[in-house]
Known about the structure:
Layout: H1 5-8, H2 14-30, H3 33-38, E1 41-45, E2 48-53, E3 60-62, E4 67-68, H4 70-96, H5 101-105, E5 114-122, E6 131-140, E7 144-152, E8 161-168
Antiparallel strand pairs: 1-2, 2-6, 3-4, 5-8, 6-7, 7-8
Helix pairs in contact: 2-4
Amino acid sequence: MPRSGSERNRPEPVQKIKQRRDAALHALAGGVPYIQFLGLRFDRRGNELTGVLPYADKLIGNPVLPALHGGVTAAFLEMTALITLSWSYLWEDVESGAIDVAALQAGDLPRLPKTIDFTVDYLRTGLPRDAYARAQVTRSGRRYAFVRAEAWQDNHDRPFAQATAHFLMPRRALADDDD
Length: 179
């Protein structure tokens, strides 16, 4: 049934937009098996994501200290950078409704950026407790993107690790290649 002119200009209800955002983010993060293995989840506030790594005994690398395993810390930062970059890459399509969230939930995911280079600076011991991370896309072009990430536990001003990453961006659809 055709919509009247006033219905076409009416903005979508905010709850519907939030549901679409949350479903798209859940499908995107759920499509990466290592994220599921780590138990990593993402807290979304608008377009800003915070990675949350809930504490689990399997994440400890040195039981004598105890300390989070360095590989877990690196993976946490890399996955946060990857999902943040992918989220920023897909944001406009999610907002406009151009992405079919049902298809995402069914496993029809867009291609993710590929890691080219990843460097971690371990600043202090990761303690046996929940950890948080945020990433910032410093530059994103058609072919390459640069991302910084930082992880902390109790105090955001005292990060225990930080990382820089370079990613190869997936090719956009042919319509975008005409630019």
